[in-house]
């Protein structure tokens, strides 16, 4: 009897979780497992704000996929997915085609620009290792250039961040810590630097406890960040953002560095492959399978699940991706072995911590509000836990965060 | 009796030499000494190729002027010189005016572009700390951007250097050492990187012994540098250089990084202040005074002196600047004290070493040709000697190069 082919697309939190759990649970003879990823490394999406601000080297936020894969059980293919064809059960990669019996779509997110003009062209994004280090170097180049120009251009020292959600706030926290070092490095007066955050919603960190939001905003303001809340971005230009508070109060914010940190959507390959999706996210069954496709599982940022308590979708996070990956692996084992029932996913919310630099933060953990160094500590625990879940203690030792104090 | 005012313009090799020698030789009551410099630091012009390539941090190539000045004897003024008025014996700075009894012009060099179109606008220069670190960051930004673009632009990985003279060759040596690190940092295939050097003269390192030139060129070629010798730069554009071998053989070299390292001239303030000069260099008397101005001394890159053995000007180097500074200080002491005769300058050529990265080089020292690690060693001795001459053993310990092996 032919072994079934399990193809996992993406080596992010979800995909790697499936691969590492399957290699533990299935014997060599039970299935042929393929893991496909564009890069030969996994990166910690939740640490990219640090690599982007330059407070953590990008090599610290990634590790080789090979280092957590059991080669006897999982075949790693470095290639880019072009299309999924459910009709003939295959995946088209740039370099080859793969047939599957069971497919796991864990392709992650893309920036969502909500149709705002100019964002794709002129704004930097915090999406992956490539974009993070480009942003870091762009900022550094602006500072390096400032003193070498006869006519000083203060917009080189201005960084505007679109979005005061999770990514925006965490990036601002790192940036506020990085700027004094940049000023020292390039002989620049700290007071000439401006960091501005523009958020369309009526509050920063929408969804967070208002007390924690206040803490985060005043912490960042104390470090020099200027907030424009309830202000929409109308357009991104080569010179900065055009924003509006209300319909008439239009303002141009000139800055050489413009960062878009305000939204993600699922991978567009999901839509292009014919799955019914909202912004690249497929409303999956409770077993995590795609509607009408018992052999296709969709997890992580491409999956949409409703939090029935508040009747709104769960936000896409590493935490939920990894829990989905674990359950998805269990269900694949059940299918491969042909006995037992598929499990249904239930999100176990362990809490959320938003960092404000390496030494501060806000969050809710096990239902309890925390701020300050306690939150910063918990953030590192959360970060290390993600490493542990996928790569065990060895990976934690290699890539973990131990600067606790 | 009023103490005479001695004003020294510039804290480069020449100016600092005058200041440090005067503070040793003159008593507090003999003269009022002012040292004017744009920055509060001195930088090692001869090490800038390293800061530009990113092989040595720019803070390593500079030190505070205050750290080598005796504040009881020398008043340091951080300001920019705008004009020298010999008619009323004063210097106009941006922030104030200074009257002098004796003036030392040690304002250093500027890039000479020989009227080549576009160089000032589009080429990077290796002129000072500001330009060096901007160039370093520009190159790094190009490498950082490469992998983040859907359509790969290989010209981001191309660096064209105009000039195979001393600065050009030394910069190429550092660059060739730096590129493998950049490739590793940004996941770039080393073979995609191109370093091209364009030189109008019929040889690299004109004036050097042909055997040493061959050594240098083949060393750099082995490290991947491509030479276009006997090729003139016609124009610099935002896309690269337009070059020509002969009149008709025109070629466009596309590169996102274009460096002009082919020529220097004296400071234009010298000409603008009415001194008769050739490319900003004044043909000084043997006492180093400006023709017709016994109270004005011009030293370093703004001074022109003929090497009578070959009837050509001495090239502007740190070595000659420092020797001139020493003699200039002696002559000022003589003038202040009003007894004795002024000394005449005679260049004591101790040799020249051109580095090819930190571990190789070519040179002539005390009349003997050297190459390889011996030359690299001597280069560091030369670099440390410059520190010693101005700041004594303390400065050598603080800023010296000790990576001899």
Automatic annotation (TrEMBL), chains A, B:
This is NADH dehydrogenase FAD-containing subunit. It comes from the Bacteria. Belongs to the NADH dehydrogenase family. Its cofactor is FAD. Residues 5-325 form the FAD/NAD(P)-binding domain. The keyword Iron does not apply. GO terms for molecular function: NAD(P)H dehydrogenase (quinone) activity. Keywords: FAD, Flavoprotein, Oxidoreductase. GO terms for biological process: aerobic electron transport chain.
């Amino acid at each position: 009897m032919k072994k079934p082919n399990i193809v996992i697309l993406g080596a992010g939190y979800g995909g790697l979780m499936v691969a590492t759990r399957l290699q533990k649970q299935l014997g060599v003879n039970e299935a042929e497992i393929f893991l496909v990823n564009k890069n030969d490394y996994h990166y910690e999406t939740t640490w990219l704000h640090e690599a982007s601000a330059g407070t953590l080297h990008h090599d610290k936020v990634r590790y080789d996929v090979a280092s957590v894969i059991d080669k006897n059980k999982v075949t790693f293919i470095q290639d880019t997915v072009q299309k999924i064809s459910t009709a003939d059960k295959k995946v088209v990669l740039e370099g080859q085609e793969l047939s599957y019996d069971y497919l796991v779509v864990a392709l992650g997110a893309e920036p969502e620009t909500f149709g705002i003009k100019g964002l794709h062209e002129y704004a930097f994004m915090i999406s992956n290792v490539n974009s993070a280090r480009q942003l870091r170097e762009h900022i550094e180049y602006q500072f390096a250039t400032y003193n070498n120009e006869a006519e000083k251009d203060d917009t080189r020292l201005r960084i505007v961040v679109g979005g005061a959600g999770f990514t925006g706030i965490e990036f601002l926290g790192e940036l506020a810590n990085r700027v004094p070092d940049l000023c020292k490095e390039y002989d620049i007066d700290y007071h000439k630097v401006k960091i501005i955050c523009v958020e369309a919603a009526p509050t920063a960190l929408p969804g967070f406890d208002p007390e924690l939001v206040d803490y985060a905003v005043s912490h960042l303001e104390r470090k020099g960040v200027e907030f424009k809340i309830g202000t929409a971005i109308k357009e991104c230009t080569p010179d900065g953002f055009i924003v509006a508070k209300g319909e008439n109060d239009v303002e141009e914010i000139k800055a050489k560095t413009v960062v878009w940190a305000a939204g993600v959507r699922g991978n567009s390959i999901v839509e292009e492959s014919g799955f019914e999706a909202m912004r690249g996210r497929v409303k999956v069954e409770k077993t995590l399978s795609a509607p009408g496709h018992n052999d296709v599982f969709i997890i992580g940022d491409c999956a949409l699940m409703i939090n029935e308590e508040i009747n709104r979708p769960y936000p896409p996070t590493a935490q939920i991706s990894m829990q989905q990956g674990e359950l998805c692996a269990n269900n694949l084992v059940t299918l491969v072995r042909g006995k037992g029932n598929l499990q249904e996913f239930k999100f176990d919310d362990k809490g959320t911590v938003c960092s404000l630099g390496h030494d501060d933060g806000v969050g809710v953990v096990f239902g309890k509000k925390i701020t300050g160094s306690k939150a910063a500590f918990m953030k590192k625990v959360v970060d290390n836990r993600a490493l542990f879940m996928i790569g065990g203690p060895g990976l934690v030792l290699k890539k973990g965060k131990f600067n606790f104090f």
